[in-house]
Amino acid sequence: MKNRLCQLSYFVVLLWLIISCQSKEVTTNSTTSMGALSENERKEVQTDEFGSKKFEWQSELCDHVGFYEPDGFSEKQLKDTYFLLFVYNSVTALNTDVTLDNPEYYTAQYIQDSLKKLEQEYLEATQKLKTLDVVPTQFWRKHKELSLLQLKEVYKLEKLTLEAHLNPALLKNTPLSDECVNYVDALITEDTTVLLAEWKKLVEVKKSKSGTPEKLEQEYQIQSNSTDRLLFAKIDLMTYGWWNCANRQRKYLDGFNKEGQMTMEFQNLFNKIESNCEE
Question: Which residues form a coiled coil (predicted)?
C-alpha cells in the first residue's frame, strides 16, 4: 500500500513538472513575439502585403499614404526629398528683415546686427541643404543644386540691400542696377528735389495698384510734411522701389515646381498612393 502511494505521488509530481515546462515555454514564446512586435512599432517599419514600405505625408488639404519599394532608396532619402519639396523655402530660410520700413531701424548698430543675423541664417540654411540626402536621381540632385544657388542669390541681394541703407552708392553698377537706375540715382543723389520727386512718382505707382489709394495718399501727405520726410522717401524708395525692382530680376526667382512637375516627380516615387482630402 505504501509503495502504491509513493508511486502515485511520484506520478503526480512528474505530471506537474511536464505541465509547468510546457506552460513556461508557451509563455516565453508569447513574450518574445510581443516584444518583437513592439520593436517594429517603435521603428515604424510599415509594409503592405506585397512588402512595399509605407510613407505618410500631408499637403495643404490632404493626408497621403504612399507605398514604395525599399530597394530603390532609403526612408531617410525619401524624408529628405519631402523636406526639400514641401518644407524648405529659400526666402523663409532667411528671416532677417532687410527693407527696414521703420525710421527707428535706420541706425548703424541695427543694420550691423541684422547683417550678422542674416549671415548666420545663410550658413545654417546652406548646411541644412548640403546635408540633405535626397533620392538618388538626376532630377532631385539637380533640384538640390538649384536650391543652393537660389539661396545664395537671395542672400547676396539681401546683404547688398542692408548695406545700401547706410551706403546707397553700393547699388551703383551692380548687375541689377540697370533696370532700377531711377531708384538708384534718386537714392545716391545729393539733390533732395530729385529724391522727393522720385518718391512722389513711386507713390503714384503704388496708388494705381492699390485698392485703397486714398489711404496711401493720406500716409504720403503726413510723411512728406514731417521733419523726417527725406528718411521716409529713402525708406519707400529702398523698399518698394529698389527692392521690388531688383527682386524681380533674380535668376532663380521662379520656383522649380512649374505646372506641378516636382509634385508629380515625387508622386512617381510610389507604386500606390492613398489620399484622404477635406471636402
Answer: 108-135
- Phi/psi zone of residue 58: left (φ > 0), alpha (ψ -120 to 50 degrees), beta? beta
Cell of 50: 506585397
Q: Looking at the structure, do residues 158 and 224 belong to the same domain, yes or no?
A: no
Angle (CA) 181-198-183 rounded to 5° is 25
| Bridge partners for 67 per DSSP | 54, 272
Domain count, the chain: 2
Within this chain, do residues 153 and 209 fall inside the same structural domain, yes or no?
no
Same-domain pairing of 161 and 190: no
Long-range contacts, 188-194 (Cβ 8 Å, 24+): 192/230
Per-residue burial over 204-225, b = 16 or more CB atoms within 10 Å of its CB, e = otherwise: eebeeeeeeeeebeeebeebee
pLDDT, tens only, 90-111: 767 899 999 888 889 999 999 9
Task: Identify whether 257 is part of a domain.
Answer: no
Whether residue 183 sits in one domain with residue 158: no
pLDDT tens, position by position, 40-76: 333 344 555 556 899 999 888 899 999 999 888 999 9
Strand partners for 68: 53
- Cα separation, 99 vs 48, in Å, equals 52
- Domain span holding position 189: 179-252
Q: Is 82 domain-assigned?
A: yes
